[in-house]
Fold this protein.
Amino acid sequence: MRKGKSLLWVLLIAVSVLCGCGNGTVPENNGGQSGAPVQEPGGASGTEECQGVQGKTPDIQEAVPYGQPEMKGEITISCLFEEEFLSAAAEQFMKRYPDIKVTVNSYKESSGESAVEDYRTYLNTKIMTGKAEDILLTGFLPITKYSEMGVFEDLSGYIQKTPELNDENYFMNVLQAAKVDSGEIYIVPYMARFDTLAFSAELMSEHSGIENDIRGICFGTAMDLAKQLVDETDKSNAFLIQMNEVSYAHYLIKDSIGQFIDVDSKKVNLDSAEYIALLESVKALSEKGYFDSEIDFYNMEYYFAAECDYDVQAAYYSMDTKSGTNYCMPLTDAEGRTLMKSNSCVAINSASENKDLAWEFIRYLLSDEAQTSPSFHGPTVSRKGLEAAAERYYAFYKEGNGGAGFGSQAEYKAILESWVEQINGCDTLDSSITDLIDEENSKYFSGRQTAEDTARRLQRQLEQYFNE
Amino acid sequence: MIKKRKRNRILPCMMLLISLAGFCFFYLIPFLLSFSYSVMDNPVSGKFCGMLNYKALFQNVYFLRGIKNTAWFMAVSIPLNVVLSLCAAIVVRKMKAHSNYFSLVFLIPLAIPSATSAFFWENFFGLHGTLNRFLWIFRVEDIDWLESSYGMAVMVIIFIWKNVGYNMALFISGLGSIPEEYYECADVEGAGRLWKFRNITYVYLTPITFLVLIMTFVNSFKVFKEIYIMTGEYPPDSLYVLQHYMNNMFLSLNYSKLVSATYILTIVIVLFVVCIFRAERKLSEDLHY
């Protein structure tokens, strides 16, 4: 009886091990690839061909032409919130290819609901059970961790072999902005979103010695200048920027994030004197009244020396002489890089059985037909799309001014284009890191802990985050 | 007669089978199936890596810290909880009036949701919390109880506060089942309180004590909820328990390490429960003879 029981247990364990191992993937054999699996024979037609040429063998990569797969099957897409452009693109794609079904799985209907943690847990479970969608919208996802774990497919091969993806039609600097040091591209943007910064025209008019052709500025430098503007003006109610201490510190930290966090080597340097000095400097500014805590927006005249804005609006206001802003430009980091936001990007699930079809859908998202659609709210990655966006946004802002617009549509487009062309990197820092930093910093600014305690706690928490 | 006896044997088995099937489908089989994850480098690539994940775990400073803190916490909180709940049960049993109200006070924490109790404890032990305000009367400097080396003590207090009532209720029922005649007989013989406790109460409470031990052991894993609400995913070193490690491994998609840690923990739990049952059997035999 006892022997029988033991045998049963051994059998159970053996069966479970065998079942678990047979999950449709085999050990990777592509060395240079960071953790992405190779599909078993019998998968989508072009996949092995594409994976085989990634990374170490660029010469072969160029030699193999891209072949469109059989346009038949189903593609699934996962996103946190319902996206208008995605639904519209899916509909158009299905019209074009009636044998393909595109299903968009939105975790929440509207962006009003805060569900990032829940969505991550939900998606993690799906990824680990091999049931995640073919295409993942990367907004709110830990891009670096997913890339390291091999969740995302390397798309560099697909990009290289898609003939229309070239400098003539696209802002290739944007399409390749997320390229990692080893050459892989795990996420591809469908829009080029970035922050901009402008200075108050009124306060700038009192200041001399500033060049008018600055192409980009980092937050720290901008705030030094903004402080000068506030200090030099005789106007009352002049403040630095419309932000609280936590947001201000957030931008300052992101400015030189590399000094405090090295994601590649998993090193954290937040308990340094520099970080403590940074926090104390922000608090000192707050105590000296550089922030706007007391403004009565309806009953008093006030000035902000600087203003953060979003791309398409900032480009218009940079021409608008009555907007009150001047010297509008993209915000860069301390090293002068203009970083695109990673929340307008897509990735392909490396465990997907429809990678080629998924790429075909992404290809459609990047096509002029989709990119010129009004459902894309922002600067697109295709040149024709940006032209259409410029036309739409210029008309929109002109209408907002009662039909009396500033500058011309061509001028507006040229500004947007020059800004998009400046992009040379992608901000892929996990939002949980910045959330942790902001949370601890807010305790400091509200007087619940000292700067030293804040730095010490953050050091411990982020060391755990990287090295667990 | 034989038919009836056979039916009496089959019916309970069939009823148990339903429960067993549920246990197998939802717990046992998924648990066994998950073993494959622990021998893969990561579940996405599915590359076999043997026992490397287990080896890596024993070299991981956070996993080792989790084990150390969990072991310390259990070693202190479980016996303390058992002793305190036994004392409370004896006191309640001896009370002549209002014993029901008194036991209710101990049972209230069980009905309070974890988030509410975490909020309370955070405000109590926080840097600007009630405890520090109270200690300031004696000019004691503010202490960040959760961040300091007292963190483990805080965890033990929260655990005892939450669980002592439940164990007390179990002990009260155990004490109630001891026949009063034994104590009366001992009184006639002139036995002291300690003798009565050692030779009557302790002997007849042995089975219930083991039940309390096992329940406390199981519940000791649940203190994580309150600690997690109070300190988040990355708690101070003294509050970092195994569940933190597992939870964070899940969030960072590291299922291989998560499953490996689960298997290690399962082995420890099984060994502990087996030891408890063996000890109980041995003790019962000794007491019987």
